[in-house]
Amino acid sequence: MIASLSGIRGVLNSDLSLADVARFAGNFADAVGSKEVLMARDTRSTGPTMCRALAGAIASRGSTVVDYGIISTPALFRESRLTGRPAVMVTASHNEPEFNGLKFLEAGRGIGPRMLDAVLRDEGKTTREFQGGRVRSAKRTSYADDLVSRFGEKSCDGVRVALDLGGGAAISHAVKLMTRLGCQVVSVNDAYGVFSRRVDPVSDDLSLLCDIVKKKDCDIGLGFDCDGDRLVVVDSAGRKRSGDFMLAFALMEVLAETREKNVVVSVDTTQAVDDVVGKTGGKAFRSKVGEANVVSMMQEKGARIGGEGSSGGLIDGGFNYCRDSMLAALLIIGALKRNGRRAYGAVPAYHQSRMAMKLPRAKAAKALRKLAAGHRDTDGTDGVKIRLSRKSWVLLRPSGTEDVVRVSAEAESQEKAANIARSFSARLKEMSR
């Protein structure tokens, strides 16, 4: 089981038990002290069982559980924000189907370190008096209506869109929403809980979606993960584009409609963001990797916009304080409506190579210090990021939960980025001996 600000994840009845689920949920209910707690889930087969344990524990504390059933994580964030209620999403996000987990929210935002400590506490066996809460079903969220209000009915009329919904929660709203906006939609992998590709669209080649875009002459293809917060774009030529490309594209659009020009992104996000933000007169700030870290720095810097390129995630704090794939998709579709397929060519694009190498954490830390000492232009925000030229960099970042160092490199060509990643991986391995 892994527990972090991003959520608690594990394999049910292996390293995550129903007793754990009930304890975490009860602790959360005690800590927030709310009369109502919202609950939703993605489409994993263990979701209903975990929801029963979750709801029972929260109800035993006297709170009413408002069950939204299957909706996306961004939809639950939005509902928590509008109602001011705490919420729990039963999801393991982009992890494979055998995993599941819990993501805790307070008033539309992820929890902080103190609340995480409260959720994880273990007071041993205690005797509690049942306080008589209940569970009620919610008919729907306002998420789709709010997006339609933002973009306008039929505002994307005629744009041809292919959707790979990945068997996940985006099925609950994606086709109907885009149809209301006027898109011509074809969808695949649109049966709840049927996973015919990898859950994470960033890791999958999305070959079926690429083929459909070409065969149906679509303007765009969109691949979602299980809880609907990650997004990958396939362009009109049927090419899968990186999450960094998608984020840069979405940022171009959202910055054009807001006066606020400063942006916060994770330290491993493409330098294309700097190009985009620089043209508006704004500044790009870099946080540690992870949605919670990006959001924390957004609040610190007073920035409305943020994101993470590696996961294809745009965060617009004016709408949602989480990665919101559907919001990003509609911003991009709006650009295609106005400018046609040439809109893809207006996005500054670099090439990334990402890999992971096994290395004990103690050895990794020592080797990274040596590596950083040999370079002038380094950034220690999260691991060691070395700027090699105006258009290339490498980031070596130890995992916080396993003996792995993640290596990310960016350059003007895919070959150069891959060579940089391999070269620095080899140097790090040599320095760790």
Q: What does the model show?
A:
The chain contains 13 helices and 21 strands. The two termini are 30 Å apart. By secondary structure, the protein is an alpha/beta fold. The strands form four sheets. Strands 1, 2, 3, 4, 5, 6, 7 and 8 form an eight-stranded mixed β-sheet that branches. The mean pLDDT is 94.
CATH class of the largest domain: Alpha Beta
Distance between the termini: 30 Å
The helix-and-strand class reads alpha/beta
Largest sheet: 8 strands, mixed
What does this entry show, briefly?
This protein has 13 helices and 21 strands. By secondary structure, the protein is α/β, with parallel strands linked by helices.
